[in-house]
């Protein structure tokens, strides 16, 4: 992607409403940029962190990778996460207080 492309995205329409020269990125392009930067499309578009600032870079990376998976792989990841959560909860109840 060229810097000229990004410049076009950043260009504001003229005050009289003329939008010539300004463009908006395609959703797929925004998703790719967000993935590479390990953030979200919402953050790129608005500057607001949808998690309230609670995600670290590894968590953003995990979410980005999850989104790139086909549906069946996503189900496997969710099943694994559920199993790991249950194991962690079981360990908590076994620990002496």
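Q: What amino acid sequence fits the structure above?
A:
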């Amino acid at each position: 992607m060229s810097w000229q492309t990004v410049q076009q995205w950043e260009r504001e329409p003229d005050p009289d409403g003329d939008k010539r020269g300004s463009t908006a990125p395609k959703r797929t392009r925004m998703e790719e940029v967000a993935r590479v930067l390990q953030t979200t499309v919402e953050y790129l578009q608005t500057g607001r962190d949808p998690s309230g600032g609670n995600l670290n870079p590894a968590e953003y990376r995990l979410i980005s990778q999850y989104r790139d998976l086909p549906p069946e792989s996503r189900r496997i990841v969710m099943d694994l996460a559920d199993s790991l959560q249950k194991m962690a909860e079981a360990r908590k109840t076994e620990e002496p207080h």
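Q: And what stands out in the fold?
A: Residues 54 and 60 are 10 Å apart (CA to CA).
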